[in-house]
Amino acid sequence: MNRFNFENVSITSLHLYGFEIARVLDSELPRLELEGFVKGNPDLTVVDVHEKAKEILNR
Predict the structure, then answer these.
(1) Which one of 24, 28, 36, 37 is most buried, by most CB atoms within 10 A?
(2) Phi–psi pair at 4, nearest 5 degrees
């Protein structure tokens, strides 16, 4: 899946991804880490960002 092709991603999955990403963005240090990850990897998909957000939340 690329960042423009959502045909294989359910609306429920996108909601979950967005919710977990938003939880990371609520806190300053985790937000800075996630922003740095995204800026350093311009070809990321929403799934990639979600996986990184989960990793940050699990620490």
Answers:
(1) 24
(2) -105, 0
The pTM (predicted TM-score) of the whole model is: 0.72
Encoded tokens for 10:
């359910």
For 14-34, the pLDDT digits (tens) are 777 888 888 888 989 999 999
**44 token code pair:** 């990321």
Domain encompassing residue 30:
11-58
Please state the domain count of the chain: 1
| Residue 37: pLDDT over 90 | yes
CB 57, CB 20: distance < 8 Å: yes
